[in-house]
Structures are given as structure tokens and as C-alpha cells.
TrEMBL record:
GO terms for cellular component: nucleus. Pfam families: WRKY. It comes from Solanum tuberosum (Potato). InterPro entries: WRKY_dom, WRKY_dom_sf, WRKY_plant. One of its GO terms (molecular function) is sequence-specific DNA binding. Residues 1-15, 200-210 have a biased composition (Basic and acidic residues). It is found in: Nucleus. The lineage of its organism: Eukaryota, Viridiplantae, Streptophyta, Embryophyta, Tracheophyta. PROSITE patterns: WRKY (PS50811). Residues 1-20, 200-222 are annotated as: Disordered. The keyword Transcription applies. This is WRKY transcription factor 27.
Length: 222
DNA sequence: AGCCTTTGACCAGCG
DNA sequence: TCGCTGGTCAAAGGC
């Protein structure tokens, strides 16, 4: 039986399709599932020798959220080859979400980081690298942040404390007592981080990545 | 020509 | 065995 992994992704603002994952897929079916408002879509890798598949199910209660179930892995090597493109796509999503508030954006990132096996965030200019391929985020000099054993959606279900943030960003994070919400904390951290120029943000993306942005699967269909 | 999406038909597992 | 359901096939048409 092929291993499966499940992710939850949010549509970009103003769109109603899931963001691309940097890999190419060919749709081979669509079916309305009992009890679901939206049809489930079936995709497989366009390379015949590759057994990778994925299913995309829009969630009725959260219409801008999609449950993506991956089956098998890309034996064609596509995942490795496109990892940088995937990161660019993630950054674009990050860029798009800025307008929705830093809190949401940060939560979104955490979701992506913890729910995507073998995914990583690697900013070579800052030396910041996040990875959950080995059950812990691979932060230099730190193994502080545990990886949940299951997808955290819709709630954060793993501990994320101030010391974690401090280690994550390499500097002190101000005490946010008085407002315990993760979003508020994330907003604070995000702001701090952005002010220090440690994020590769929208303007940089526009300059460098428009041509290399992954062409899309589900996300760009209309 | 080749690859894509769409969509109804078909198949297999399960109760 | 039968019917239901999820997953896949494959023909048709578009780009």
C-alpha cells in the first residue's frame, strides 16, 4: 500500500483554487464524494513511470481551505528538482498574504512547515533553514522545536513558545503578555523579523522569480 | 501531434 | 449476492 500524507492548504487571497505545490500534475478524474459539497479531484504525475498521485478536496466548512492527500512519491525525481521552485511558490503565497495580516501569514507558514514532509525553507542569504524532514526543525544550533506527528490543521496542536521563537529567529522576541493569541504573537515576531530584513519578501520575489515561478497544476486553472 | 481537462462508465472493496 | 461508494479509465474535445 502506498504511503499517504495529508496537507491542508489555503487559497491565495482573491482566488478560490489551492496554491501550486511546485510539482506538475495531470488531472485524471473528478468525483463528487458523498457528504461533500465540492467534488474531489484526482491528479497523477504526468510522467508515466511515476506513481505519484494526489487528491484535492475543498473543505465545505472552510471553502478557501483544501485538503490535499498525496499518494506515493515522485519516483521521477520531480520533488527534488523543483524544491527551489516550491520555495518560491511558498514565498509568493507569503507575499500575497501580507495584506491579510502578519499573524495569519505566520500561522500559514507554520502550517506549511509542519505539514509538509521533506519540505524545507532555506534562505541562503541569511542562513535560515527550516526543515521537518527529520522530525525536528533543522535550525542551526537548535533542536528546540518539535514536529507534530500529525497535521496541525485546523488548530495549532504543538507547543510553540517564546524560547522557540527566540531560537527560530535568532533574537529575543518581546513578551506579548496581555494577548496570548498566537496570531498576535506571530504578528509581533513577523514584524520584528521583517524589520530586520530577514525575510525574502514580495519585492524581492518580483525581481527574481517571475520567470522561474512554477507553472501550475490546479492552482492556475480557471 | 501531443498533452490537457472533462465526464460518464467501469471496477473493486466493503458492509 | 447485491448495492453503495471511492477511485480509475478512457473517449471526446480543446488548446
Amino acid at each position: 500500500m502506498l504511503a499517504r500524507r495529508k496537507e491542508y492548504v489555503e487559497a491565495r487571497p482573491g482566488e478560490e483554487v489551492p496554491p501550486e505545490d511546485g510539482l506538475s500534475w495531470r488531472k485524471y478524474g473528478q468525483k463528487l464524494i458523498l457528504g461533500e459539497k465540492y467534488p474531489r479531484e484526482y491528479y497523477r504525475c504526468p510522467r508515466r513511470c511515476c506513481e505519484a498521485t494526489k487528491m484535492v478536496q475543498r473543505i465545505e466548512t472552510e471553502p478557501l481551505t483544501f485538503e490535499v492527500t498525496y499518494g506515493g512519491s515522485h519516483s521521477c525525481g520531480q520533488e527534488t528538482k523543483n524544491q527551489n521552485e516550491e520555495l518560491i511558490a511558498v514565498q509568493q503565497t507569503k507575499c500575497d498574504e501580507v495584506g491579510r495580516g502578519a499573524g495569519q501569514i505566520f500561522e500559514s507558514y507554520i502550517h506549511k512547515m509542519v505539514s509538509t514532509p521533506n519540505n524545507s525553507y532555506n534562505n541562503s542569504s541569511t542562513g535560515v533553514e527550516f526543515s521537518n524532514s527529520n522530525s525536528v526543525f533543522n535550525i542551526p544550533n537548535s533542536d528546540f522545536i518539535p514536529t507534530p506527528t500529525s497535521s496541525p490543521h485546523p488548530d495549532m496542536d504543538f507547543p510553540f513558545d517564546y524560547s522557540s521563537f527566540t531560537h527560530l529567529f535568532g533574537q529575543d522576541v518581546p513578551d506579548n503578555s496581555g494577548n496570548d493569541s498566537l496570531a498576535a504573537l506571530a504578528a509581533e515576531v513577523y514584524k520584528l523579523y521583517e524589520e530586520n530584513g530577514k525575510l525574502n519578501f514580495p519585492h524581492r520575489y518580483d525581481k527574481q522569480a517571475e520567470n522561474s515561478r512554477p507553472s501550475n497544476n490546479v492552482g492556475d486553472q480557471s
